[in-house]
Amino acid sequence: MTDSIKVTVRVPATSANLGPGFDTLGLALALYDEVEVGLVDPGDPRSRSVGIEVTGEGAGELDDGEGHLIVKTMRLTFDRMGLPQPRGIRLRCLNRIPHARGLGSSSAAICAGILAARALAGAPYPAVDGPDPAGGQAGPGRPGARREFTDDDVFALATEIEGHPDNVAPCLAGGLTIAWTDQSNAPHMVKLIPHADIRPVAIIPRHRLSTEVARGLLPKDVPHSDASANAGRAALLVAALTERPERELLLAATEDRLHQNYRAPAMPQSADLVQRLRGLGVPTVVSGAGPTILAFSTVDTQDLIAPEVGTDWHIQPLDVETRGACVVSPETR
Ligand SMILES: Nc1ncnc2c1ncn2[C@@H]1O[C@H](COP(=O)(O)OP(=O)(O)OP(=O)(O)O)[C@@H](O)[C@H]1O
Ligand SMILES: N[C@@H](CCO)C(=O)O
Fold first, then answer.
1. Does 171 contact ligand 2 (Cβ within 6 A)?
2. Continuous H helices in 9-162
3. 100 labeled binding residue
4. Residues 279-308: what's their mean pLDDT?
5. Which residue's alpha carbon is at the smallest distance from atom 8 of ligand 2?
6. Closest ligand 1 atom to Cα of 14
7. Is the minimum distance from the CB of 198 to ligand 2 under 6 angstroms?
8. Contact 48, 65 (CB under 8 A)
């Protein structure tokens, strides 16, 4: 028996905040998860179940049923598109983005689920005809009934699930993104292409830190002087990353006072390494909610990183990814 329809999506890792741009700036990195999603033929004995195969990150650890983040996201997307829930869902995940390290793994999974569901909605599929575990509508697949689901809808839903737009924006669009939400909580973004001299290096520890825990360490209020310093640095950082990728500017532009110090107790080794690399003149920040750190290497600093970092961390130079998440097969959009 075969899956009645199948799509494959590819989603990049991302680094959010980039120092001063808390919950706003994000950079897409050329490290990808690939997810093949199949909807099962009605006659197939697997058609009433969820089947998940994970290779790489999270193998043997993640929920292998309705609780899997991609499945939950797909279910919600089918609901939002006004479509009935598909019956059997098969996922084959090739996970390369480390989990809970500050490289946007949850955003990547969420974007993968939404894009896969949108791509699958274009074809007939067998839908649930009995009680649906995710609470979806029963009935046969009715692609004609679907509501148009635009790229803005994808961005809005991914941001709603993730809680903030700074990883979601670069994951979907690629490049360097400035993301914000308006008064009605709708997310928006501007995408920029970083200067070709920008060379990100992810320095990844073995241990994890969940975003939830890291966000729990932030104070409710911050001094006005710190907010003002960050506003200036974030503006400078956009200029440095796109037009003036000079080490001195990048070093000044990556200073943060809004989140990194508050979170340091949860990631003392990361905080220490950021300080040491910055002391050597390497522009370095905590990536997302940590504990990975991100350095912007230049010709004059690239040789400084490895000796300072030592062997406890994985040093991974990564190109900036400029295309963003995509459906690679079939090429539907
Ligand atoms: N490919 C995936 N498939 C299923 N679940 C995933 C996947 N990627 C991430 N997750 C879930 O998301 C959790 C990690 O999310 P979390 O927000 O804590 O970190 P992150 O997204 O890796 O980092 P950050 O948001 O700081 O960049 C994992 O522990 C797992 O539960
Ligand atoms: N801006 C987010 C990124 C991690 O998801 C944070 O720092 O909490």
1. no
2. 69-80, 105-120, 151-162
3. yes
4. 94
5. 289
6. 27
7. no
8. no
Is residue 211 lining ligand 2, measured as CB closer than 6 Å?
Answer: yes
Which structure tokens are listed for 2?
Answer: 């075969």
For residue 211, the surrounding DSSP H or E stretch is helix 211-216
Residue 2 predicted with pLDDT over 50 = yes
Cis-peptide into 245, omega within 30 deg: no
Class of 3-178+321-329 in CATH: alpha beta
Domain residue spans of the chain: 3-178+321-329, 194-317
Mean pLDDT in the chain? 91
CA of 69 to the centre of ligand 1 (A): 9
- The neighbour count for residue 320, using CB atoms within 10 Å, is 22
98 assigned binding-site residue: yes
Spacing, Cα 288 to ligand 2 middle (Å): 5
Instruction: Give the CA dihedral 236, 194, 178, 327, nearest 10 degrees.
Output: -170
Q: What is the ipTM of this complex?
A: 0.98
- Domain 194-317 belongs to what topology? Alpha-Beta Plaits (3.30.70)
Which atom of ligand 1 is the closest one to the Cα of 93? 1
